[in-house]
Amino acid sequence: MATDPRAMIDRAPMSRFQWTVVAIMVGLNALDGFDVLSISFASPGIAKDWGIDRGALGFVLSMELVGMAAGSLLLGGVADRIGRRLTILGCLVGMAFGMFGAASAHDVTTLSLWRVVTGLGIGGMLASTNAAVAEAANASRRNLAVVLMAAGYPVGTIVGGLISARLLADHGWPAVFVFGGIATLCFLPLVLLFAPESIAFMMEQRRPDTLVRVNRVLRRMGHAVVDALPDVAPKAPRVRIAALFTPAFVPLTIALTIAYLAHIMTFYFIVKWIPKIVVDMGFAPPLAAGVLVWTSIGGASGALLLGLLSVRLRVYALTIGAMLASTLAIIVFGRGQTDLASLSLVAAIAGFATNAGVVGLYALVASVFPTQLRATATGFVIGVGRGGSALAPALAGLLFKAGYGLPIVAALMAMGSLVGAISLFSVRRRLHATP
């Protein structure tokens, strides 16, 4: 009887090569983190140079989220058809194109269009990396690997924020986008050399040379090769989003999508508006970027702690706890702080709670959906969530423009995390079955 390579990977310890694949996906998510927040780092300079108000700035801050929604919805399904690796490579090219374009923009409309292009690549990247990490890891370390991948996001904003602060001090805001474009291109050779297509995907999409390709990856992982592959199951219909709404998956699809949409609105209120809020308090743009760095340090800490705890505790319970903590933290953030140190501390706590909730949701999606639906499900949940969350920066901008103060705006935006926790609780019986 032929040995199933997927079962071999699930049972065997993680090899150095598997951890290398995970590390590359962590790096790609870090790149996503910087690319998404590059507009936040640059926004004070853009507002000053172009003389735009908070309402118009909120619109610009939302644009790559619109692109991310479209990219996740469209390219998540593509990753389940042509492969995670090819999709990632294509997304990297699109992201670099959008970043260099943003650096050359001279008005709100042009900048917004380039941010949509960047968002398209980021959206497809998120769906693909989530699936690729889950399929590179063994069964006992799968949740940890997915959480570590998601933790790359705040790490990217930390490193990017430190670099952006230096660039903003020495150059203009376009330098932030130029740096992002160069960093994006640097990942192309890394993916080509060290991130092969996942064995789980190759097993689902059989080709005449699948055995050779699977054994090539098994050797790189340090596992024994196989003489034959298990008999292929009857060819399933091409994966479509409609499969997520079959009776087996529809409750989870709806609950996870609502949870992600609501919580990510709270998350993006914080990470998109902190630099502008801090500048409006009278601090210089480089100092504002520093506060966002502290938010990201808190976010990375929250993600890593959730990852470590997920080895012993259920991700479901950890995620709900993080969302409830996020609600409280954002309300406290909105009460305002009198000095930069206090502001940085509260921002770090808010980043800790909000990002822990985000990475927990990634792990849940990767756990509850099978291989043939994993990237499609991730793309749908992220796509709809990011599409809805595009309202968050714009909504906050409109509330500020209407005269509402930070305490009221923050309290309203904090409700997204509470709604997310309630949504997950509504399917607690199904999620209790996940690791």
Could you please describe the fold and organization of this structure?
- With 435 residues, the protein is mainly alpha-helical.
- It has one domain (5-227, 239-431): MFS general substrate transporter like domains (Growth Hormone, Chain: A, Up-down Bundle).
- It has helices spanning 5-11, 16-50, 54-82, 84-103, 108-136, 142-170, 174-194, 199-204, 210-221, 250-280, 285-309, 315-334, 340-368, 371-389, 391-401, 406-426, 428-431.
- Helix 2 runs antiparallel to helix 5, helix 10 (250-280) runs parallel beside helix 14 (371-389) and helix 15 (391-401) packs antiparallel against helix 16.
- The mean pLDDT is 85.
Give the SSE map.
Layout lengths: L4 H7 L4 H35 L3 H29 L1 H20 L4 H29 L5 H29 L3 H21 L4 H6 L5 H12 L28 H31 L4 H25 L5 H20 L5 H29 L2 H19 L1 H11 L4 H21 L1 H4 L4
Helix pairs in contact: 2-3, 2-5, 2-6, 2-7, 2-10, 2-11, 3-4, 3-5, 3-14, 3-15, 4-5, 4-7, 5-6, 5-14, 6-11, 6-13, 10-11, 10-13, 10-14, 10-15, 10-16, 11-13, 12-13, 12-16, 13-14, 15-16
Would you kindly provide a brief summary of this structure?
The protein contains 17 helices and no strands. The protein has 435 residues and is mostly helical. The two termini are 30 Å apart.
Q: What best-fitting shape do the alpha-carbon axes yield?
A: globular
- Counting DSSP H or I runs of 4 or more residues, the number of helices is 17
Whole-number count of domains:
1
What does the largest sheet look like? none
The SSE string, one letter per element, is HHHHHHHHHHHHHHHHH
The percent range for strand residues is under 5%
CATH architecture: Up-down Bundle
What is the helix content?
A: over 70%
